[in-house]
Structure formats: C-alpha cells, structure tokens
Amino acid sequence: MSKGNVREAALDVLLKVEKNQAYSHLLLNDTINKNQLSPKDTGLFTELVYGTIQHKKKLDFYISPFVKKPLSKLDDWVRILLELTVYQTVFLDRIPERAAFFEAVQIAKKRGHKGISGMVNGVLRSMQREGIPDPKEIKDPIVRLSVETSHPEWLVERWTDQYGFEKTKDICEANLIHPKQTARVNGTKATVEEVFKMLEEDGVEAEKSTVVPEAFTAVKGVLSKTRAFKEGYIAIQDESSMLVAHALGAVEGERVLDACAAPGGKSTHIAETMNGKGEVESLDIHKHKVSLIEEQAGRLDLNNIKARVMDAREAKDHFEHESFDRILVDAPCSGLGVIKRKPDLKWTKTQEDVKRLASIQADILRNVWPLLKQGGTLVYSTCTIDREENDNVIEDFLKGESYANGDHNLYSRLPENVQKQMTEKDKVQIFPGDFDTDGFFISAITKG
Ligand SMILES: C[S@@+](CC[C@H](N)C(=O)[O-])C[C@H]1O[C@@H](n2cnc3c(N)ncnc32)[C@H](O)[C@@H]1O
C-alpha cells in the first residue's frame, strides 16, 4: 500500500470510529487483514489511527485558530483529515511536513472539490507560518489539563472530584503512554524460563514482570506470531487483569463461576491456577463472544472450562443454590482504565453510561450471590477507575446483603507491590500510572 493509501485508510477508520460504527481496535484489525498490510504499513496505520484519536482535543486546539468557522461546522472528513495531518507533523518526527501536507491535499482533492483542497492547504500553510498555540496559556486548570492531555472536560472534572487534581493529572498523562505488550506463562505447560527460551528462538526479547510472577513484557518482537503463543504456552493479557485470578485464589478441584467471561482471559488464567483440575463455568451474554472463550481454552489446552451463553442475572435459575466455591464478576464497565489501549472510549463514554453500567453491575452481583457457597469468595473487578462503578457498587452491595463481608484476605493473595498500593485489605484501585498497566479495580467479598 502507498503511504497515501495508508493515510486514506486511517481517515476511513477514524470516520467510522467517530460515528460510533465500530470500536477502533476491531476496525483496525479488520483493515489490516483485508488489505494484507505489511508490518511497516501496519505500524504507520496503527500509529495514525490511535495517535489521532488519542490527541484529538489537543489537535483541535491547534487547528481551530486557523479555520474561519467552528470546527464542528466543517464536514467530518475534512476536520479529521486536518487532525490526522497535524498529528503527523506535530507528534511524529519521522514524517516530513511536506509529505504529510502533500498527501492531505491529494486526499482532499479526491474526496471533495477544489475549494476544499484549497482550504486544507491554506489551513496547513498558515499553521506552518504562524506556529501553533500553546495550551499552557489556558488559565482554567481543568480546561488546560483537558486540552494538554486530550481528555473530555467532564472526565477531568469527575476524576478531580473523586481523586484530586494531582492524581487526575497522573492518570491523564499515563493514558497517553503507549501500552506495553505483556503476557502470562501458562503454568500448566511450562515454566517462565522454558518459555523465555522458546521466545528467544522467535526473536522476542522478554523481561520478567515486576508485578505478577508468571507475567512478562515483550520489549521486542510480536508475541502473537510466536510458537509459544500458537501452541498455548502463553496468553496475551495486561498485568492488572492477571491480578484478578490471584485475587480469586481458586485451587485444584474447586468449582468456579466466571459470570462475565468473554473473551476468556481470566477464565483461562483461573483454570491455570487450578492446574487444569476442577470446574470453571464461564458465562457471557453474547453468543459470538462465547466461542472466543472456547478458542482460548482450546489453544491453551485447558479442558476444565465450560463456556455458555447466559445472562448472569439469570444464572441463579440455571445452577444449584450455593454450589460454587468461588465466583468472579468481571463486570461490563465503562473501561475508563484502559484508555491508553482504547482511546476512543474517552470520546464515546458518558456520565449516563457510568450510571447505567453501575446499575447493571449491582444487578449481576445480586443475582449471582445466591450461587456462592457459605464461606466462599466472590471477586468483583472492573477495568474502570470510576468510584460509581467500583467502590460505590461494592459498598451498596455489602449494605444490602446480610451475609456479605469484605474479604480482608484479599491483601495476602496479591503480590507485594500491589499490597503496598492497598489502603484497604479487601479492595484495591490500580491507576494506569501506578505500575504502567491498565487501570483496574479489584475487590473481594466472603459469605457467612
Ligand atoms: C469486562 S468483559 C469480561 C472480560 C473477561 N473476564 C476476560 O478477562 O476476558 C465483560 C463481559 O461481560 C459480558 N456481559 C455483559 N453483560 C452481561 C450479563 N448480563 N451477563 C453475562 N455477561 C455479560 C460482555 O459481553 C463482556 O464480554
């Protein structure tokens, strides 16, 4: 594919993502596979799409003074083409300005009329001549942080109310850092050392995690292309997600319910911690996602996972009362802890979503609770960092259920680094800047 076509493909993806027609990561993979992009083009294409979404607000701040009307009045494709081009010139060193400008004008000519390509050219040339504005000059600290780190103002305000301004600044800045490529070793098949040898043969340079014992970061190479991945020796997963199986603490022979399980990252990890012995019942409301759990379990050679389509809110009608030793509710959530991986979330999620999700989370918890044995453990986790979906859901649940208590042993089941982060023994909020991982909330409750 030529560079121009890569940029045009990026523009198409950005338009669809903005219109909420698809998630960026799915559309990105789809375009890469359909067009059989080379590794080099894949790199540029991915960078253009994620970078433009990630820095959208700052890019608009740079562009607005040079456009006569409000940016919202431009055709969407014209505004996105400008954002995409300015992203390349301001954030990427390796792309010469003249090449980026030339391609932008060619795309504008192809998609619009002469007036539009002239306008695009004019805006870009004026920016080049006059220089871009500096967000540091914005007086209001919330607006300044929102522009500097490209987050919606409502989110910066909300996090400031919940965690204070300095912590919010940390979160916003951490959200701009490229996510690491991390994975865990499938302990039922090999040791970390054995897997490192296999990876080396495939040109992957790996470093042990400082957070999770069975985890590592690939600093060079592509994990999904290795024999270790294809033959089920590793599973690609963020380290904070891996903490959840530790928090649950399942052991051989137990019966575990994973109420919201697809695509199966945690179900398979739990099955590994049980050494493949015992039962994991993995539910998901979406039929197409249940097959992903089966695929993962198959690849990792784990035979003790039973995946089925089910609304967790109805699970108590399908399983025997108090029949599970442990239950995981890795709830559907706003995903505000994984913005560095899925930057479109910061532009698509709203406060209404947070409220709606908190009510679903509470419903799921209430409905799976009767299935937990006396003395059993339930772990509630989310990949968000919003109190309304995390602490508040758990506090309300504990108030409403007389046999539910915070499980203070959670503390001892988590790695030392994480323990240091904990201010309470039965729950922990991990922020994206804490360990260079996704943001995650993990809490544990016991029955009896
Ligand atoms: C955070 S994701 C789970 C990720 C999974 N635990 C993993 O580690 O791979 C939440 C999942 O809950 C599913 N879900 C949403 N509402 C549900 C419900 N009422 N019952 C069961 N699953 C639900 C979604 O389809 C989604 O796959």
Automatic annotation (TrEMBL):
Residue intervals of the SAM-dependent MTase RsmB/NOP-type domain: 171-448
Catalytic activity as recorded in UniProt: cytidine(967) in 16S rRNA + S-adenosyl-L-methionine = 5-methylcytidine(967) in 16S rRNA + S-adenosyl-L-homocysteine + H(+)
Binding site for S-adenosyl-L-methionine: 260-266, 284, 311, 330
EC number, as in UniProt: 2.1.1.176
Gene Ontology molecular functions: RNA binding; rRNA methyltransferase activity
Catalytic residues (positions): 383 (nucleophile)
Keyword tRNA processing: no
Annotated compartments: Cytoplasm
Keyword rRNA processing belongs to the record: yes
GO CC annotations, alphabetized: cytoplasm
Entry-linked CDD domains: AdoMet_MTases (cd02440)
Residues in coiled coil: none
InterPro entries in alphabetical order: MeTrfase_RsmB-F_NOP2_cat, MeTrfase_RsmB-F_NOP2_dom, NusB-like_sf, NusB_RsmB_TIM44, RCMT, rRNA_ssu_MeTfrase_B, RsmB-like_ferredoxin, RsmB/NOL1/NOP2-like_CS
Keywords carried by this UniProt record: Cytoplasm, Methyltransferase, RNA-binding, rRNA processing, S-adenosyl-L-methionine, Transferase
Family of the protein in this entry: Belongs to the class I-like SAM-binding methyltransferase superfamily. RsmB/NOP family.
Role of this protein: Specifically methylates the cytosine at position 967 (m5C967) of 16S rRNA.
Protein name: 16S rRNA (cytosine(967)-C(5))-methyltransferase
Organism: Alteribacter keqinensis
Underlying gene: rsmB
